[in-house]
């Protein structure tokens, strides 16, 4: 402590600097601590930045939720398209079977046979 300068804070407004080797209150000179506006400006700037960041974060969150909702909708629509394709193939197959069945019935029935109309009139 002796031979070096020493700083002490007494009330947060002034800084005591010892100018001599022996420390007594009569040898201390009180210098006013300059009040910095930087912390206040930084706080105001930080509040503005925080508000901007909050708005950006809310917008990003909204967009992410919208993208996720659209992805789920797309997945649902894709599944629906696949189901409709399957149903369509099934119905085509059933139509072919029914068409073949009807053809077979018509060929077996005399009602649908071609007849010579001239021979029946005689």
TrEMBL record:
Region (Disordered) residue ranges read: 1-20
- Which compartments is it annotated to reside in? Cytoplasm, Cytosol; Golgi apparatus membrane; Golgi apparatus, trans-Golgi network
TM ranges are none
What is the protein's membrane topology class?
Answer: Peripheral membrane protein
| This protein's GO CC annotations | cytosol; Golgi membrane; trans-Golgi network
Mainly localized where?
cytoplasm
Q: Which UniProt keywords apply?
A: Coiled coil, Cytoplasm, Golgi apparatus, Membrane
InterPro entries per the record?
A: SCOC
Which Gene3D superfamilies does its entry note? 1.20.5.170
Answer yes or no on keyword Transit peptide. Answer: no
List the coiled-coil residues.
Answer: 60-94
Q: Which Pfam families match?
A: DUF2205 (PF10224)
Subunit organization: Homodimer. Interacts with ARL1, ARL2 and ARL3. Directly interacts with FEZ1 and UVRAG. The interaction with UVRAG is reduced by amino acid starvation, but the complex is stabilized in the presence of FEZ1. Interacts with NRBF2.
Give the similarity note. Belongs to the SCOC family.
Q: What does this protein do?
A: Positive regulator of amino acid starvation-induced autophagy.
Question: What PANTHER family would the database entry show?
Answer: SHORT COILED COIL PROTEIN (PTHR21614), SHORT COILED-COIL PROTEIN (PTHR21614:SF1)
Q: What is this protein called?
A: Short coiled-coil protein
């Amino acid at each position: 402590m002796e031979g070096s300068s020493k700083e002490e804070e007494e009330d947060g407004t002034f800084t005591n600097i010892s100018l001599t080797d022996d420390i007594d209150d009569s040898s201390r000179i009180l210098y006013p601590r300059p009040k910095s506006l930087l912390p206040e400006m930084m706080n105001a700037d930080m509040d503005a930045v925080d508000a901007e960041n909050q708005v950006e974060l809310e917008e990003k969150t909204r967009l992410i939720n919208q993208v996720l909702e659209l992805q789920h909708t797309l997945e649902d629509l894709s599944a629906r398209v696949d189901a409709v394709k399957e149903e369509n193939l099934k119905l085509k197959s059933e139509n072919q079977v029914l068409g073949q069945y009807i053809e077979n019935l018509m060929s077996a029935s005399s009602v649908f046979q071609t007849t010579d109309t001239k021979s029946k009139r005689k």
